Amino acid sequence: MNGLHIRKFLLSPTILFVALLFSLTICAPQLSHAQLVPPAPAAASVHITEGPAIESDKDGLAIIRWTSNNPGGSAEHFGVVHYGMDAAQLNQTAKNHIQLNQSHPETVFRVRVDGLKPRTTYYYTVGSMGVPAESIP
Fold first, then answer.
1. pTM of the full structure
2. CA–CA separation, 95 vs 114, rounded Å?
3. Which residue has the higher pLDDT, 90 or 102?
């Protein structure tokens, strides 16, 4: 234990409790709300730095991947893909949850799109959306 040395001598129950409490409070890692990172300032503009690209495509599903600068805001985000068979009517949506790392300058998004028909052309756009802090349990 760091900073607390235990030697062999008889302690009263009260002193032993205080020593253990000191050890648990000071030396142990804090696992409380102190680890919650406050929202980062929202980026002035979010732009894609790599992709979007189809990372995987098989058995009626595709995984679309792209990288953007970190959008900031809440750490709870979703990668969002709007898609459809007509470029003017992207009427289907797929999204996947992501936990932003507030200290990284870029974020990699991956979204799984299910229920695709074989030998069919799909059009898509990508984006992200934050989750308001008050809706996080």
1. 0.67
2. 11
3. 90
- Chain segment 26-75, per-residue pLDDT in tens: 444 444 444 566 667 777 778 889 999 999 998 899 999 999 888 878 88
List phi, psi (to 5°) of 60. Answer: 75, 15
Cα-based angle 100, 52, 69 (whole degrees, multiple of 5): 35
Q: Tokens 């989750």 correspond to what residue?
A: 131
- Alpha-carbon distance values, 130 to 14, 21, 69, 100, 111 (Å): 49, 40, 14, 10, 15
Any residues with CB less than 8 A from the CB of 119 and at least 6 apart, and which?
A: none
The CA distance from 3 to 27, in Å, is 8
